[in-house]
Amino acid sequence: MDMCAPRRLLLFSLPTPKLSPEHPLFRQRRRGRTWPGIARCATEVGTGWGGIVEDDLSELLQILPRDLRDNLQNEPRKDQLLEVILDLGRRPEARFLGDSGGQYLRDSEISQKELEDAQKAVGEFGGDNRAGIEGTLHRISAIRSRKGMVVGLTCRVGRAVTGHVDMVRDLLNYKESILFLGRPGVGKTTVMREIARVLADEFQKRVVIVDTSNEIGGDGDVPHAAIGGARRMQVPEPSMQHRVMIEAVENHMPEVVIVDEIGTEAEAQACRSIAERGVMLIGTAHGERLANIIKNPTLSDLIGGVETVTLGDDEARARRSQKSILERKAPPTFPFLIEMRERHYWVTHRTERSVDMLLHGKKPLVEVRKRDSEFQVVIERWATYDGDGL
Question: In CA terms, which of 87, 179, 363, 377 is 20 to 30 Å from 298?
């Protein structure tokens, strides 16, 4: 039998979620009042599968100059809008899912007054130069000059998507921690948001989200309805994320902690401390492949850490290796690691096994999770993983 051939392990249909008008994704509480959801219910952008989307796009468009707002309202691909770029002295640009380039929205350049008006509509930026629109999931990021003046804005569309969790629903039953890797824009935060809702509402877990930039739960003091019954802890400054992670465990007794963008050694150590207390962790980290984390000294502790070991002569001959080799130091913080190659193409590792095999120069067995031509979730087992692709 060819071990490099894919094996189909599981096949199940992805049901189209049926949400009533009273479902929380259709209603939001704002400033003490209950407002009907203004977002259009649509098929998940750019895919054709049956996921339900809420994007509150009209609220993001309100911060843009009027002519840009009108252009985008009439844009046939507005459901696929990823972000709008406003840079001082340059033409405004819209970027869409699935496109490598962008589309200019007009011929004239963005003025300083237009940038100032957009800032006033958004509100105050945090220490990470990010801001949001209260009650929505949109993210506004600023580019500043050397003097601190805002000279550019990236207006990123935030969407609540129902249906992504079916790619990993079976893994949630293990009650073990999961780390997601992927490039920006592949949908990591969207998945975190839905996993939080499913664990809190369907699995009846005590879930706490450590929301550093308000990307998971949205801007404002009341979190977005897309996280369901999960609780959200905001972080005053990005550098304090690791402290809030520990505070969440010590003060609020969660069964699950969800954290986005683990990027420092202190945050990696906080993750290990939380995992050692028996709390399930769901997180994301910078990098596209498991090999990126193995080679990253700041984050390698998430997968158990790597150390150099010197073998004796007999052991080296028995292994047919050099005397100095790399070994995993400790059990991984995250027993499962998922590489999000594309929005609907994921590679799943049993972290401990995959790290050991990669360090020994072997190819680990991985699971490829994807949607086929009929939008069913398919899980296949492969033995051809090399860290760069399948």
Answer: 363
